[in-house]
Write a structure and sequence with these properties.
The protein is mainly alpha-helical and 95 residues long. It is built from 3 helices and 4 strands; from the N terminus they run βββαβαα.
Length: 95
């Protein structure tokens, strides 16, 4: 489970602001005993770059607009590796 639009980074002071509240996805993941894979920030540049055909991730993992996406992707890879290591079958579980 991932928490999308988890926080907003103020462009002026760089502080994280919880616009829609925060932590609900992690709480729900624990409640249903499923993996919490992280959060993705609410960033207008992620939307603009995607809509413009040049996704933020193409700027690299050090781009401030792509960091939360790369962190989430690394968590997905780690979870897939956990599933593969604990199963004799080559199956990916989608929950």
């Amino acid at each position: 489970m991932v928490e999308n639009m988890s926080y907003f980074v103020c462009p002026h002071c760089q502080h994280e602001i919880d616009i829609f509240s925060r932590g609900g996805a992690e709480k729900t993941a624990k409640q249903f005993d499923i993996a919490y894979l992280g959060n993705v920030e609410l960033d207008p540049e992620i939307r603009k770059s995607g809509d413009g055909g040049t996704p933020a991730v193409l700027q690299g993992e050090n781009s401030p607009h792509a960091k939360s996406l790369f962190t989430f992707a690394r968590n997905v890879v780690a979870r897939v590796e956990e599933i593969k290591a604990s199963s004799s079958e080559s199956v990916i579980q989608i929950q």
